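Appendix B, Record 12. Input sequence as logged:
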Amino acid sequence: MDALEPGIAVLSDAFWAYLLIPVLLLLSIYFTVRSGGVQFRMLPEMFRAMRSAPGSAPDGGRPISAFQAFAVSAAARIGTGNIAGVATAIAMGGPGAVFWMWAMALVVGAASFVESTLAQLYKVRDTAGYRGGPAYYMQAGLNARWMGALFAVVITVTFGLVFSSIQSNTIAGALVNTADAAGAGGAPWLPYAVGAAVAALTGAAVFGGARRIARAATALVPVMAGLYIAMGLVVIALNAAQVPGMVAEILAHAFGLREAAAGGVGTAVVQGMRRGMFSNEAGLGSAPNAGASADVSHPVKQGLVQTLGVYFDTLLVCTTTAFIILLGHPSSGAEAGPTLTQQAMEAGLGTWALHLLTVVILLIAFTSVLGNTFYGSSNVAFLSPNPHAATGYRLAVVAAVFLGAIGSGGLVWTLGDLTMGVMALVNLAALAPLAGTACRLLTDYLQQRAQGRDPVFTKDRMPDLTGVQCWEERDMARFMTRAAAD
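Logged structural output:
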């Protein structure tokens, strides 16, 4: 099977470079223009929307809040893409890839806003609150059940199973690296022990349902992101004199004539945009599955919150990785991936930092498993309401996590890269005709804000929309009362 990997990699590279990235860029520019640059002009509103408080779920518990949905999506976003993906982009595209990663995040924020706003509009109720995502707005907004089913299958396999196994493989690899550095390497049983431990923790979380996943993500994401960014700030502080030169190097490699003559700029552009998109997931159709679960007063609120997640992921976490690598000057023979980042951290701060980074990688990879599982759960429910289907899916996730820790991730990662691209293309095909609805919701939101109100949406404000199952006036009464009191 490994012999297939080079051919699949070539196909995946061509698919991303010549089809997916151009389509995403063109549509994101269209979304940006049509929304009046929502990802730029409404940055302060994004922070305000994150404080939105939920009501109560049908089963009497607390539904998922705007911040918890943000944390779940951040948990899935902040994974190997932030450490391994950024390292790979720099190794293959040079420092200039970092600039194009930044540029990609700024443009595709509009796509993130559109997809998450639509996911909120077309969400459906369940006992713990709400669920939704691209499959749901494909069925309700486009009347294309077949399209939603295709998307649901692809995201469940890609994120729920394949990427969860990759994350556990990353955990095992990081622990092996730190064991080797401590002189305790060479233990063949270590990956099996790691796999069993991660599988047990995953099972405890995912069999507790959406609320337990959201609570775990809410607790872990701030800790692991804060710890990682703090380590990066220490590296930057210790190398402050080199920072201006590093930034100049990023810009020079992004636009330099020498790199253009050698074809290096093209590689930097493709790698930066591709890894940036892979990391922040804007337009892929993954984050809306978390965004739809939030209990908010207006669909635009969660669209804004999820857009902020793109900036948090790329402009903060991915930039931290890039600066650690470029300031750490790891050896030229270092592997692309987490090993490159670990070498750079060790070079910048010492061996102790490598061990601390291993702890961060453990948290990052585990929270990604939780986020990926959440995405799959929403789409399994779309395919079948049978509770046995959900149980079977959770068991499959636990098995995938264990097998990922003891196996090789090469071919699986390459296949996942390709299927994720197919998933994104299906999602973008749905966003193009539905973008007008998201922009209408944005206009409604801004009109209410201009009147000094906390925006509340009810579907009778846009009675021409079909397929909307929630947003009845009686459901939003608590928000309307709260807004009136304010």
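The chain has a mean pLDDT of 79.
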